[in-house]
Amino acid sequence: MEKDELDALTGKVIGLAIEVHRQLGPGLLETAYQQCLAYEFSHADIPFEMEKPIPVRYKNTRIDCAFRADFVIDNRIILELKAVDKILPIHEAQLLTYFKLTKLHLGFIINFNVRVLKNGIKRIIL
């Protein structure tokens, strides 16, 4: 995927997250936003995997350590959804761990517990 295509996909994903936030507002559980975002991705024909298991490889063995990305979009972008007071370093560390284990390098932490969603989006590039 070229940079322009990735930028376009990123724009669509963020736009759909904003739409979900406009409809629901802050204050719900993360799972509500996740299900609504999955609905939006499906209707927009955006390929995604929800609750994607991320295993650890250890000595040629796959070990399921209960790591699960909220979304992996088109095998290119990791989305971690939150509904918290603020994004913390531990949330960033979680995304960096997923980068290391998946070899992906672009991700977003989206915190829906804000008045204006653009203030709750953190883009991380490895």
TrEMBL record:
UniProt cross-references to InterPro entries, sorted A to Z: GxxExxY
Pfam annotation, one family: PDDEXK_3
NCBIfam families found in the cross-reference section: GxxExxY
The protein, known as: GxxExxY protein
